[in-house]
Structures
1.
Amino acid sequence: MSMPRLPTSRPTKPDVAVFVSGVTSMGLEILAGRIIAPQFGSSIYTWGSIITVFLAALSLGYWQGGRQASTASNRRMSWLLLGTAAYVAVVVYANDQLLLSASALPLPTRYASLPAVFILFGPPTYLLGFISPYAAELSQKDGTGEASGHVYALGTIGSIVGAGATTYLLIPTLGIDMIGFLFGFILVGTAFALTLPTLVPRPAAASVAIAIVLVVAAGLGPVTFDHRGDVVYQTQTAYQELEVIDNGDVRTLYLDGARHSAMDLEDPDRHVFEYTRYFHLPMLMVDDPDEVENVLFIGGGGYTGPKDFERKYDVNVDVAELDPAVTDAAKEYFRLEESENLTAHTEDGRIFLQETDKTYDVIVLDAYQKDQVPIHLTQLGFMELAEERLDEDGVLLANVIAAPSGSGSAFYRAQYKTIDEAFASTYSFRTSSWESVQNIEVVATNAETNFTEADLAARNDQRELGIDLRSEVDSYMDEPNTDDVPLLTEDHAPVDNLQASTIGQEYVIEQTGDGETQPGPASIAVGPALPVHARPAPGLEAIPV
């Protein structure tokens, strides 16, 4: 008895075109986040812009493609794919210049990234939108419903493959330019395959020409001068763009284009950024610094704070750093050496606190995505968790980027209010004498305390900490007014909105010693980068970033 043979069908050329368009459109959407983030941040507004532009461009392409579907052919789809590949070559070669041009447009903060996303990704996504209605028109399926369902399924499967491959394979493995080159080459290859077995001269020649353009764009890239210094190392991690840049004797770690740590190559123990000295303020607030045993840093960066604590005190230092590439870079370029007293944990800070059974004397919160604290590390639930993991006289220090008062202070005041809700007593210290956006250190004690500036100054004189915190104590601030800002909870934490007022403002990172000012763009959380010049406070140097 013979078994019935199952029907088999090979994918048609339109099927292949639909699948590849799905792979490419979703792959480009994921890649857009990496290209846009260094200039505009990775806030909800940035991702909202990306999703809006991609959906709008695809919808317009679907509509126009449907109107012209009666003229559909494999050759027309070939030209559409080649046009998309050509524009991808432009994105690979000129994305930095296009981003800078778009960022100069005078738009409100939340909409600032829209023009950049539109210019870079609107045209190629629009062209890809034509493919599905063309393929439905050319489908061999019976009936409109079956043909459209077939096309939707193939396009969606392609999108799943594009999103997964870009997220889990391509971005951790390749640079942005090479990923763009790969997508462009896939489009060219597909376009060429659509014309086979007959070799049509014009599409074939165009395929070869665009392939060459892609190779040149990915291989050469734009010739630009990096004002920040010499790029020692650059990579795309699973979470962000990571760069190590030397400017004279100062080596700086950049994450998504924002400064995160710096080290003096001639004097590695010097605090290049003034705000890292403030990490020692908790040692003035604990009952006895000699009894401090366990310290936790959430966020590693260049590991300036953890290395300093290990060097100055007889303590065990744990570091919860989410991105393993950051820790690897710190070991390779910032002289980090793990030891019995310093351990790096590759884990999210909140998850680390949830899972550990260890209690700490000091917790330093210094985790950032570009210039924004991850939202789940700003909320009341996290602060209460940190309070539970601290000893009775334990101290939390949170590094906050905001203005101390007035415009740009909303996030600082909301974070202060949230921390104060979880802890018995809360204090704050500014790191610059100017009213600019800066690093503000919010310090909270588990025990009820009432430290005055004079009390802390006296403890600084009495305690031998290996670091004089006189100027840091002098930066003691009065309690801020928090009546007009929300408590940041899991249900309502509008961090993006609160930080929006800092965009375009001067962000001053005070630099100790004789380090040179490094000119650069101002970019806080999200929004366009604006050139500024910070004014130095007495005895310090302000870095415009």
Note: Confidence is low (pLDDT under 50) at residues 4-8, 514-545.
2.
Amino acid sequence: MCVERVYNWFMSEAKYAHREIESKWLKKWEDEELNKTDLLGAKRPFYNLMMFPYPSAEGLHVGNMYAFTAADIYGRFKRMQGFDVFEPIGLDGFGIHSENYALKIGRHPKEHAQITQENFYKQLHQVGNMFDWSKTLETYDPEYYKWTQWIFIQMYKAGLAYRAKSEVNWCPHCKTVLADEQVIDGKCERCKSEMVRKELEQWFFRITKYAQRLLDNLDKLDWVQNIKTSQKNWIGRSEGMKLKFGKYEVFTTRPDTLHGATFLALAGKKDRFTGEMVINPATGKEIPVWEAVYVVADYGTGVIMGVPAHDERDMVFAKKHGIEVVEMEPDKSMEKYGEKTTHYHLRDWLISRQRYWGPPIPMINCPKCGWQPVPEKDLPVLLPDISDYQPEGEGKGPLAKHPEFYKTACPVCGGNAERETDVSDTFLDSAWYFLRYPSIRSAHSGQLPFDSEITKKWMPVHMYTGGAEHANLHLLYTRFLTMALHDLGYVPFEEPFKRFFAHGMIVKDGAKMSKSKGNVVNPDDYIAKYGADALRLYFMFLGPIDQGGDFRDAGMEGMARFVNRVYRLFDLPEAKSEDIVKAEQRLIKKVGEDIERRHYNTAIAAMMEYINLINGIGGWTKEQKGILAIMLAPLAPFLAEELWFKLAHKDSVHLQAWPKYDPGLAVQERGVIAIQVNGKMRDRVEDGPDVEQRALQSDKIKKFIGGAKYRTIFVPGKVINFVLNGK
């Protein structure tokens, strides 16, 4: 087929009608339940999960689709490898994020949740993922939060949930307490307001009981290293000693500097001298006791020994207040003054929230019997529909204004009692959702939160994809809760996810997306204009998935042209070429290996090269067209299905096996590297490993270099130039 004829053919053909094609296949897939998984009958279970999305005000955003696409490609690939893949979806719709937006626009959070749910699911249908729509869940559904409350009660019965008065993080804007993990650089991780400290009585989970186990298990996890490092640092194991200064006990990691301690500092709201003096046990000298704002109340004992000569903050404090500075060398013998101990940075998980939009904490306070759990037969404790749901910031949630909710009977003595009016942290909702998905509508779904048979068969999750920003929030909480449920005998494993893959972030034209910059990418607009497959391919082509990429409209238009080009390519006539045969075998090998490694960008690039080759030859076989359609299926599911049926196949391309390659034919043909000496061509050598060493072994090159010293200029794939000294 001549070049002119190929050009005229490409210019004359109609474009890929993405709207009609995507609508057609969406309906057919859903009618035939193509993506519904037989959980009980599955022979090779593979649980492919993406991090729980919370529906934003505008619905599905570009970050969601980027992450969902990355996860879906892997799941589709595993299905073609013969696994029974389960890929569920749902909404993390309880919590501050959704509630704050509802407050902002004057809409009831419950009404807002229903609106966003409808919109979000409508959008999710359009992206082409293999979601099993028979297993959706929403955290604000009473059928779900019934079991969130059940889990709270099990934790309480096991001594892992407790109520205590403590100085806590308080967000004045969100008007609620925050867990330590939800405070970033002293600010609320949601609204970025400056956090203040407040003393309140709250509910906590004893995550600190699991600190060492959470730390030890990190080495066993097949997770990306930066996540494991982040958790290790947050858990923060410190080896040190406890030292006595009179009635005060100090934890220090530097007992060798004890003789340089010239003051004690207690956690305080301002810097002031308490009027007390204590004895330094190593020197016998009296030293003053101060309150200092830089001392953290819940670190160690809340008291530090001030050693100005060995600590920068202590030095600043000492100079400011005229405290003595003692310059002395560290002395290991000081360790005899204390007791060795281990300290963790990790604090217990603060569960209470003084808001409306969340699961009511299922506890009842009786003046006679104290705190009692709600009887399990009475679950769920329903969140009532109230009109005054706005938080007031007085240390109590909106439910505290409704006696019809909180007035109740004690489950032990039957006397007058009151319900807890706080709701639980949204991160509790999302700490166990992966356990519920497979058990939705199972035979025992109404009796227990997770069916034991299904749970044993399908978990832990085989592949989990999500954002690295949740390393010390969702991921750490989920690990803890899974360990606790394992110890209580409810699940047969103690780690939730076998593998975790962290995706990167998408920016627009080099800048982080924001409304103020006017550079937010709305997936709906691009799907309508270019199609879901073009957008999926462009996202994955931007760069390595773990690094993210820069979204540019010009690149999006280029990918849409590529989709059209592939579509028209399938109308080329039948033709056989040995070059295509070898190229196809190399492509099968590369694309399969790249998808397994999540190197989607290089897999797409290899397909582009292959298509250029076919275009240049001007024809290929029906079998070769089918193989390409199969390899496109994980990346561009609509396009692949349309091309597959264009070849007169009757069953879905997504039910086909991943093609195998001939190792002999898949060997990459190496090019030839030119060898120069002082810029002049002297020999050639085959490209590949150790190419420089092999070039130096050439007799022709040895003749010109001899024993002279030289420097090497190497242009990969093209030339090696040995430049002799002095030239």
Note: The CA atoms of residues 231 and 472 lie 6 Å apart.
